[in-house]
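[job 4417] fold queue: 2 targets
>>> target A
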Amino acid sequence: MAGLVRLLNLLTNLFPVWVVAFAVAALWHPPLFAWFAPYNVPALGIIMLGMGVTLSADDFARVLLMPRPILLGVMAQFSIMPLLGWSIATLLDLPDELAVGLILVSCCPGGTASNVVTYLARGNLALSVLMTTCSTFAAILLTPLLTEWLVGDRLPVDVMGLLKSTVQVVLLPVLAGLALHHLVPRTVEQVTTFSPLVSVVAIALICANIIGANKSLLLNNAFELCAAVGLLHLGGFSLGYGLARLFRYDPTICRTVSIEVGMQNSGLGAVLAKQHFTNPETGISIAAAPCALSAVAHSVIGSALAAWWRIRDDSRPTGDAMLDD
């Protein structure tokens, strides 16, 4: 059993490889992932259910033990990223539907993949999980409201529809997972061995499906899309770290805030874009393309940062690591 757990952890920690490999395969041959389109919403529900089963009532009590860094991370998540998304879309003069997609994903909460990267970066894993949990619950209201505020002048936004969708694909699965954690703990303990890998593969499949469906759009707008998404996440990682540093937190917390701010729940953004910003005539959601590309960008940047921080730690004499970044 221990060997299986190590293998599952290894495969889960390779999530950037999964995301990039699936994205490249989708661009090479889109039909490989076309079959997954009807399962995008259920897959996101499974991801959020997997997050929910890892939670317990005690986790919410733990928030009270470290409220300041959690509050800082959540506030940064829903201020830095949305304003960055809007600013980049405006400065690059992105077409309306691409701009809406970029802003939508910037208004999403932190993704569960941030917990994996925090672990790899030797950040504060418990804090990362709590930040993800809090930002996910906050997103139920903030994602629809911020999206309507920032993109309402570009395209009409059904804020109540967005709110309903967020409740369905975020709140209900997380609450169901939380209930299962307490009702059937032994079953949940077995499931949580596999759920992180299932979540990683599900994210990769959602993004690959959307990338494949928007292949021509992505290739024709490759430069501006890559620039926009890259700047969004580079800005999120940098400003998140700088803000935590400004408040004089130690490097482990700075790393954690940086990762939590820089990595979005791109799967949620992609699903919301497909549900609410799809062209009724073509059946294609152009707004979903930046969301899917976002998953690739933040996975690569986050993993590169984690590797850099680990190398820096390992290159320092024992006792000096983590003193400063």
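>>> target B
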Amino acid sequence: MLTILGRESSINVRKVMWTCAELSLEFERQDWGLGFKDVNTDEFLALNPNAKIPVLLDGDRVLWESHTIVRYLANRQAPTALYPQDAWQRAKVDQWIDWQACELNPSWSYAFMSLVRQSPQHQDAGQVQASLSAWAQMMSILDKQLAQTQAYAAGPAFSLADIILGLSIHRWLNTPFDRPKLQAAEDYYHRLASRPAFLEQCAGFP
């Protein structure tokens, strides 16, 4: 049995949960962080010195960083269509996973903390607007890619990249602001949101 440490409202925890569901992997989840068990304790820091969720326990194996975890789970179940064995096809999946972490995720951070989390430390109107503008710019890049593929982020087949990006679009559509219309991204989101694993693990939180 796999154990996922982290609260359900965390987008990074839901990446792991959705992946497990797509791979038919049973798991249990324990609430850690933001109102639950403290990640700044010796117990948790022994598992992840960064004091961040999620952490995956697979027997005596311990992993942190959500994108590393989902890749591990796919490799653990290999072969799987979620993470192609062909080097070129896998690189295209990795490209969009890494883009989400390095480009898309930083763009929304300030705005999301302000508008959804209502963080007192994130209430500068100028920084909120800058974050929203950057977020829209990044999302337009994804929208253009989806308009080209007419299917999924890395091509015609559903992959790990779509789990990562599907949750990102879920957050985009559920953050309260006047967002530009991105039709290809919205159509893509509706395809993903109809998947049983998404409905089971991911639909309840922005």
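[job 4417] complete. Note on B: The CA atoms of residues 2 and 59 lie 7 Å apart.
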